[in-house]
Structures are given as structure tokens and as C-alpha cells.
Amino acid sequence: MKNLKKISKQKQRTYEGESDLNIENADMIICRCQEVTLKDIVQAIAEDATTVNEIKRRTRAGMGLCQGRSCSRLVRKILAEHTGQKFAKVIPGTFRPPVRPIALSTLASLEEDTDDKS
Amino acid sequence: MRKTEFAIVGAGPAGLSAAIEAARAGVKVVLADENQRPGGQLFKQIHKFFGSEAHHAGVRGIDIGTMLLQQVSQQKNVEIMLDSVVWGIFRANTSHTLGVIHNSKNIHLKARKVLLATGATENVLAFPGWTLAGVMGAGAIQTLVNVHRVLPGKRVLMVGSGNVGLIVSYQLLQAGAEVVAIVEALPKIGGYAVHAGKVARTGVPILTSTTVKEVHGKDKVEKAVLVQIDKNWQPLTGTERELEVDVVCLACGLSPLAELAWITGCKFTDVPELGGHVPIHNENMETTVPGIYVAGDLAGIEEASTAIEEGRLVGIAVAEALGYLAAGEAKDKKTEISSRAEQLREGPFGIARKQAKEQLICRSLSE
Amino acid sequence: MTLLKDGFFDPEELENLPGVPSKKRLIQGPVVVIECAQEIPCNPCEEACHKKAIQIGDSIIDLPILDADKCSGCGLCIASCPGQAIFVVDTTYSDKEAAIQLPYEFLPYPEEEQLVNGLNRAGEKVCSAKVLKVLNHKKFDRTAVITIVVPIQYAMEVRNIALR
User: Fold this and answer.
1) Chain C residues within 8 A of B208 when measuring between CB atoms
2) For domain B2-121+254-366, which CATH number applies: 3.10.105.10, 3.50.50.60, 3.40.50.1820, 3.90.180.10?
3) In what order do the strands lie in the sheet with B223-228?
């Protein structure tokens, strides 16, 4: 972890002082549900994000309707590339129920117990 | 709260097969699927399958789907809940409870054993223009063309020459679209040569060491720019070429659809040969969380025919664990099923998956 | 290795396959040509052959081995191949023509006697071909077996047709 911090600190230094992140295709959207661009993600990494969860909290990537089903892998790739971690070691963000978008009213409509109190 | 002995999430080839085997032994099964009809991806597979007679070789996937549905409908012990979204899974002592939305109602389904057979999700490739209308996953195109009989466009660029890319190209041709080219980033074709041959002899060029650099269009795809790449995946400047297309189909592999499995807290490991992070499982397909089983693409990206065998294996293992099958009988059945699955993992295309599966089972022993 | 790069064989790659008959056998009359080069788990062709001319054995990844002397060129194995890699070639059809049976899954099917383009493995038009027969037996399960007649020099080249 220490090493990773170091790497991203270096990145941060590289990016400091630049008005925009000098990367190719910076405006390319990565998370289409939340319209998060490559630049947003690289910026988050430059500011020390080292996990998918950290990127999610900073940028909302993966917090849309599809819950990262498309972009999670892309975010992991970008993370691996920009932090020097192995792609396989970058785990997906934490999953929590509900794993599908459902209306809160539906969630609250729990079928009443009929024959079972357990 | 509803109760059952065995709850299955996903009515694709793995889920259906598990339901059939478990119910035949006497287990009470509830099979939940978020779609309006069961069968998973099988009903999009209009091509003939490989394998031997025991694997239904030479039979089209769609007909294998129909056969599985007939078999499951003969089982009185199986309740199929369609249009049912499983949104969560919770552990309670020795059983598990699923949160299921059905008919806009939230149902808690308690089961002693749970099989997660949720399948896979398509990998996307990001390039400038990839969010334009007309850039689609191969699975989405198969659904459109083979299930709903709608062509997504007239001129298609296929990205990826694995079996999915080759098969979907062929099916697009059958449906009347023009496949302008198939591009493959690797220096050689990824899928079976026979699938490549079927497409190549209709005149579709397969361009290896080539990828899509960007896609242009005002509101939708109008043009794709291809570029050749070297061994280190670096684009070779000056090799760009433009193709007029209205669809870019991404067939860049699949990843296990594992959200529910992650929520159970079962342990994962990354196995590139099996498509990424997969739940560690033993020879019964049981994960490191007792009572939670996995099968099919969630347990490692393979094919429908292996998913069927893995599902059967879980069905037998669950019947045994619940006391419906004696150990000896279960063992015989499991050996037979496993050897059928193993046959499908032989040869140059299967060996890496075979070894990866063996390592997974070894890992499970030490967890 | 054009097979893995382009998706089709060059002639040398083809000749060495155990499912491809010798040149000597090819000139003797109808015989099956199995263009199967990769060890994939598959054996329906073996089961489709009543004459036991195709052998794979217990290990279903093995390549099909053709016993060309047992093969009558009946073509029952053509539609059984999930990879559509089996053809029947008859170089004795006439002095200057060969007949080829090939699997075909595109609609509309050609009519018998219709003139079509003969395509090679790369999908290039190499000659004109006449459709002799269109078989769409129930057992073939929607893979039609089409017999075409081509100039004899294209017997081992034409592997597809295109309607004009």
C-alpha cells in the first residue's frame, strides 16, 4: 500500500501545475450512467485514489443505473495503468444490495408473513 | 417469507440443469429469473453446438433450451418465478434469504441451499465515440437479431474474433446485414477456425493485429477508424483506415456477473483464463460460504454446454447434501457428469480452462 | 498459417489434414473432404457416417480421420458438422466438371438449375456454378446441403456460393 501511495504521489506531482491533465482522449466518457470522463478518473488517481471504491466516491463512476456493470472493468484498467498495480489485483468496488435499481416503495412492500414466523 | 429447500438465481443452462437434477431426486426448488422467459442465452444461440451426443452436439442452442424447459416442466417440485429480480442475499444461521422483486412486490425467499447462476456481463472497449448510438455489445445484437428479429443496422464492424465475434458475425450475415470487417487486436484469430472459415468464405475480411481507434458520427455511428497495432499493443501511425459503418459490435469477452456472490462474502480469485474474478469453489461447485453454490459463467466464462454440466453437478450435490441421494449414488452421478464436463475442456482451446478449474478446486481445499 | 490469420486454409495446410482424401482418391469419384484442423471437442461427423469412414475415437478432441476407401460420398455427414467444415467433392461428374456438395444456411435458397457464383474459402468469386440439387432434409436441421457443378479445376477451391 505504501508503494502505491508513493506512486500516486509521484503522479500527483506530475499533474500539479497543469491546467488540464495532459492525456489522450481526456474527455472520453468512461462511466456513461454518470457521465464520468477519463480525465475525472485520472484526476482522482492523481489525488491519491488507489481503489475502485475511492474513485467511485470521488467521481460517482459506477454509481448509476447499471451499477458499474460496464465501466467497472474500464476503471480497474485505468487504475492499474496509472498506479502501477497489476490489473488482477485491482478488485471491483464493494457490491451492496440492492444490486438492481428498484423503487423504494417496492422495497418497502414486503410480502406479509403468512404461515411462517421464522 | 417463503421457504424452499433449494433456490436458484438464473434460469439459463446452468440454473435449469441444476433444477432438473435436484428435482428429480426429490428436492423442492424455486428458480428465479429476471427475464420474461427462461433459458438465459440459449434462445439466442441459433447455431449448432459442438461436443458429443451426450453434450447434444449438432443440436442448435435454441433447441437445447426448449429441451431443458420441457424437462424442467415435467418436474412438479420446481417453481419457476419469472420477471423476478433478485436484489440481495442475506445469511441467517444455516440458511440464506433472497430478496426478490416479483409483480412489484418484495418477497423474501428462504432456502437451505442457493445456486447463483447469474451468468456474465459483456466487456466493453472504450475509444473516442464508444458512447455513440450504434456501438453495441455482441450479446445485445444477438438479442435484437435472433430474439426480436430486428437488425441494428446495415453495415457492421465486428470488434473481436473470439467465438462470440465470429458466431454473431455469421448470424448478422444470415439476417441480411453486411459485416464490413472483423478486427482482432491479437496477431491471430481467437475463436475456432471452423467458425472463422464460415464467415471468411462469405468474403468478410478478418483483420488481425488491428483495433478500432475511434468512431465518428453526429448522432450515431457513421464511420469507424481502424489502426494496426504492434506486439505491445501500440498503434502504428500511418496505418489508419476508415470504414463506413453504422454499427460497431463489441465482442471483447465476458466477465462473470458476480454481484450477488460478492455480497455473500464468498472468497474470489482472479483467473484471466476464466474471465476475471471468480468465486473459489470446490468440486461440488460450492463456494467458501457453505450452502452457496455457483455454476455456469459466474463460475468461470465457458460455454453453454459446460454450464449445463456444472448445473447438473450442483443439482446432484445439493440433493446429496439435503439427504435425497445416498453418498454412493451421488458420487457415481457426479463422476459421470464431471467426466462429460472435462471432455469439453480438452484440446488447445480448453486446456487453460481445465487447469484453471483444477487450481480453483485446489484453492478451495486450503480456504 | 493463413488459417489462424485470415480464417481460411492455404492449399498446403489443407493437404496434410487426416480428413482430406489423397489426390489419387479424389479422382476416383465422390468423396468427403473434412476441413477440420483444430482439436476441438466435437464428434457428430463420426456418428453421422453409416459406413464408418470417419473415425475420431473416445477422445473427442482428436481430428476426424477419413478412411477414404469406405467413403461413398453420400454427404450425410455434411449437415452434422456444427462447424460446416465438411464437403463432398466428385471430380468424375463429367470430363470437365466437378460436383461439390456444401452446407448452406442462408435464405433464400437457390433454385435447382440456377446459375450462382462459386466462391473460394476467402469468399472471392472464382467461377460460375450451376446448382444441381438443394436438399433440406428434416434430419439436416436447417442446414441445407447444396450440390453445385463447377469447372473441374475449382473442385478443391469452391466452398461457398453467392446468389446473383
Assistant:
1) 5-6
2) 3.50.50.60
3) B210-216, B223-228, B241-244
